[in-house]
Amino acid sequence: MAVTPETIDQLRSVTDEKYKYGFVTDIDADVAPKGLSEDIVRFISAKKEEPEWLLDWRLKAYRAWLEMEAPEWAKLNIAPIDYQDAYYYSAPKIGDGPKSLDEVDPKLLETYEKLGIPLKEQEWLAGVAVDAVFDSVSVATTYKARLEQEGIIFCSISEAVKNHPDLVKKYIGSVVPYTDNYFATLNSAVFTDGSFVYIPKGVRSPMELSTYFRINAQNTGQFERTLIIAEEGSYVSYLEGCTAPQRDENQLHAAVVELVALDDAEIKYSTVQNWYPGDENGVGGIYNFVTKRAACRGRNSKVSWTQVETGSAITWKYPSCILQGDNSVGEFYSVAITNNRQQADTGTKMIHLGRNTSSTIISKGISAGRADNTYRGLVRIQPKAEGARNYTQCDSLLIGDKCGAHTVPYIESRNPSAKVEHEATTARISEDQLFYCRQRGISQEEAVSLIVNGFCREVMQHLPMEFAVEAQKLVGISLEGSVG
Amino acid sequence: MALLEIRNLHVTVEDKPILKGIDLSIDKGEVHAIMGPNGAGKSTLSYIIAGRDGYEVTDGQILFDGKDMLELEPDERARAGLFLAFQYPVEIPGVTNTTFLKTALNSLRKGRGEGELDAMQFLKFVREKARPLGIGDEMLKRAVNVGYSGGEKKRNEILQMAVLEPVLAVLDETDSGLDIDALKIVADGVNALRSPDNATLVITHYQRLLDYIVPDRVHVLADGRIVKSGGKDLALELEAKGYAQFSSAEAA
Amino acid sequence: MAKEMIKDLSLAAGFEEAAPRLPGSDVAWLDALRAQGIAAFRSNGLPTRRVEAWRYTNLNALAKAGFAPVRGDAELDAVPDGAALALGDACRIVLVNGRLRHDLSSLDQLPDGIAAVGLAELLRRSPADLEDLIAPAPEGRDGVLAALNDAFMEDGLVLQIEAGVSVDTPIHLVSIGVPVAGQAVAFHPRNLIVAGAGSRSTLVESHIGLGEGSYFSNGLTDVTVGKGATLTHAKLQDEGAAAFHVALVRARIADEAVYDSFVLHRGGELARHETHASIEGSGAECRLNGAYLGTGRQHIDNTTVIDHMAPGSQSSEVFKGVLAGHARGVFQGRIVVHRDAQQTNGHQLNKTLLLSRDAEMDTKPELEIYADDVKCSHGATVGELSEMELFYLRTRGIDEATARDMLVSAFLSEAVSELRDETLVSAFAERIAGWVEARHEDRTEKAA
């Protein structure tokens, strides 16, 4: 997929608005008292009417978190976060949760409409099931009935805790344990909602599943937790998108995503991350500190992460694969764009445990303005990973001479039959390329968008069609004003 | 009023004078050739017409259809109908030829107040233009100029010209690096586009290309000035006698 | 914090006792430098693997070995034949356990325009001349071993190449580790190399060990390559099997200068060669190349940092290695292109062959780029010999062991051929061939 003129038109139509998702929805919310304590953890658990075991798990996580220190190894400059100065639960007042779309507050429907995600079935996104998460809770899930026919469970994780407790109990924390890292541990204590997907044995999901995350309330952290289980021989393609209002203070988003793929199962997980990036002076914006990990437990299982990261003031994110099953496959395709004062430290970990496991990493980092963009990745071949393969390619594009682009790969090989290859390059948009495009009648901004989309092509082509167009648009918008 | 009117054009690059008073007038329906030794300022002239950065006009004017060309950005000039076939076409990794051309064409069409072509219409259109140049679908799908041979790059320039249908085409050393067969294909492509409504400016070091693209007027550019103008026979004369007669600064 | 520090500080133990007899003990600035060094070591300790620069090299064994500063001269009458690199009639400067030995050196063969003096001698004779040349260790945990060198430095080579001088024959620095019975000796040689503007010269180091015991060589070499100068700096690390070898080279490279370095690791139980090259001038070139041969339980670490601080310079790195047995290899290569260093070219390549199930390679090629008009790339591969190539050779009648050796040698020759001097290429190639042969015999014996 490359940029199309339609895309460029869409781009043009939004360029004047800068961050067009920056509006706020005025809606009554049910909010927990400010601050973080065991009581707040209990409050969240009680609000969600959770079973005892989950509360205990949350409390263990909270106590562990108190003993931990925020990681400092990333190439990020993070202002200290006051964890007591935030709300950990904010839910639009929607009674007991929506039974059907007709019961969803029209203001919320309107919000998602404005974001380009109509929640009415059979409309624009026909063929894509959407779980809409607004601040701390899931407000609507579409196409549930259709999916239920196939035995697919697609609901908010809160609902799953109530309706499918055994599945949740079996898998939650099994890929990202509550002790994993500072932000994942915090999430384990205070997660409020997120999506749950279960694809039964042998089922190919008849449609794309998607979650749309929206932070609305002020001073509120969003801590969603997503769990996807693909049983033997099943397949699912899952998409997530995110936006937030334009605010002057930083907001924390610390999510955890766990994927489990059993024998012959395949999960394709795509993200277009467009949280509010802050203004051109670096005021405001989301701190996007996310732990995403997939366990390829089964033989021949496959997990493919595709991400387009254009938003957030700071991104700290390493979607990873633990390649446990023999012949399992992990893929990571990433575009990370930073402009103005944005910072991103993102990459992946591919841990090869099983025989003949293979992984592919394609990372495209684009840095403009005064931004810093780091690829950080680990490829580890364990002694038993006979015949393992990894191929990694990291390309950086610098736009302007005030930004930084960095590549920090770690390669650890402990099996002689494994083959690991890593390549990295840096480049810039040349004056010659810009002039050539402009001589053909293409404007400066279109040319930048075209060239950068060309640079990202190998990644973009892994996105589902619906997302690819959106993503290409974002590339152009997020680089606005970076040249000339 | 001539289509292109260059008056007393003085250009410097990093404070060094390159063009020292060029006068040139091209009417619709005409083909002009500018010949000259290396370092005469030929490429500078093509770049200044197209609006490349890094050149300073210290005196003079370029009028295109009566409008001041120097005020316009490169893409505005392109939308006004100017096309430059580059001596060294630029590589743009990851951007396919079709995407590139479609973006450019629709940008031009929009400028002319015409509707945009959709993907199917465009493909049909571009295939028609590509066939005579020996450019197949495979090449259309490849990234712009990436990994092309010299001949492919030049043919690709002519394809772009055919698609964008300029009013004035400037061909900068389009013959360089081409063997005789490729040269014929390129020249046929250019000739096919000749009409009473457009004009062509051929910039070349050698007379060879002018056997195939026959000019109405030939100008000799040496040391930043047009030192002689004449009919197509002037090119033959140059071929026979060389440029030495025109320039003491030939070594430059 | 404690997690980043090895608590065993026994390496510092002998300092108070040793300090009065170290050269220049009456010189105030040197005294202060030594005090600062020992204080830095005592407060930081040796780094654990939590310190990023030491992520893949565990120094616990070094901390626990009970190394103490060497006392007295080791008994050695002659440098055994074939121990050092074969460099023909090169001028030889011999250090035994870190001390310059005139009786073993051939300083009388120094070419014109080159001055070579022992550091200890200079510190006693005219310490003021050295004050500007002896730079303190980098601060913090990364620089702890250099700080130890600051504290204990005793001798070494001070080499000055006059401006404009051009010499073909190399200067050969031979460092010999001689284990002392009942004592784990440590020495901290400090070398200062100044290549004057427009000069052209070659310094070759052979680090070899005699006897079975353990010793610790902790060298620090400061190199200044003047404007338009070319310095070739090649090194063989073939220490004794139980030896620890840690070396830091800090190179400053001026306008249009060339620093061309190569290191071959073959010996030692734990070896680390670390280069910090600062490209301070434009039009300069920095080449850091190397090869490593590991077997048994050897641990071999190559760490490089290249700082591009001025525009229009280039750097290139090729490191290739072969690991057998339980050997472990480490490559950490960082290229930093600073804001002003436009038009920089930086290329880096690390390739490793793992020849056994228990060998391990950890590699971390890093780019840190703050300028946009640059061309930088790195590549790394880890794998085994190509089955197809092996098969091909065997179909031509070559037995498997020989075929493997041929392919290993061919793989390594790519790194050695980065040396631009034929004499050096053959001297190092001979060492590699020796290693391959020894392994071949080893395997044949085992098979028999």
Task: Describe, in plain words, how this protein is organized in 3D.
- The complex is a heterotrimer of chains A (484), B (252) and C (448).
- With 484 residues, chain A is of the alpha/beta class.
- Chain A is built from 12 helices and 23 strands.
- In chain A, helix 2 packs antiparallel against helix 3, helix 3 runs antiparallel to helix 8 and helix 9 packs across helix 10.
- The N terminus of chain A is likely disordered.
- In chain B, the strands form 3 sheets. Chain B has a 6-stranded mixed sheet, with helices on both faces.
- Chain B is α/β, with parallel strands linked by helices.
- Chain B has one domain: Rossmann fold, CATH 3.40.50.
- In chain C, helix 6 crosses helix 7 and helix 7 packs antiparallel against helix 8.
- The model of chain C has no long low-confidence stretch (mean pLDDT 93).
- Strand 22 of chain A pairs antiparallel with strand 22 of chain C, so a sheet runs across the interface.
Q: What would you say about this model in short?
A:
Chain A has 484 residues and is of the alpha/beta class. Chain A has helices spanning 5-15, 38-47, 52-66, 106-114, 144-149, 157-163, 165-171, 182-190, 431-439, 444-455, 457-460, 465-478; strands at residues 29-31, 90-92, 128-134, 137-141, 153-156, 195-199, 208-214, 225-230, 235-243, 250-253, 256-261, 266-273, 285-296, 302-309, 314-317, 320-323, 329-338, 343-352, 358-368, 372-381, 389-399, 404-413, 419-428.
Categorize the overall geometry of chain A: globular
Count of individual beta strands of chain B: 12
CATH topology of chain B: Rossmann fold
Output the radius of gyration of chain B. 18 Å
Please give the alpha-carbon distance between the first and last residues of chain B: 36 Å
For the biggest β-sheet of chain B, the strand order reads 6-9-10-3-11-12
Classify the secondary structure makeup of chain A into a structural class.
alpha/beta
Q: Sheet bearing the most strands of chain B, described?
A: 6 strands, mixed
Oligomer: heterotrimer
If you compute it from the alpha carbons, what radius of gyration of chain A comes out, rounded to the nearest whole angstrom?
21 Å
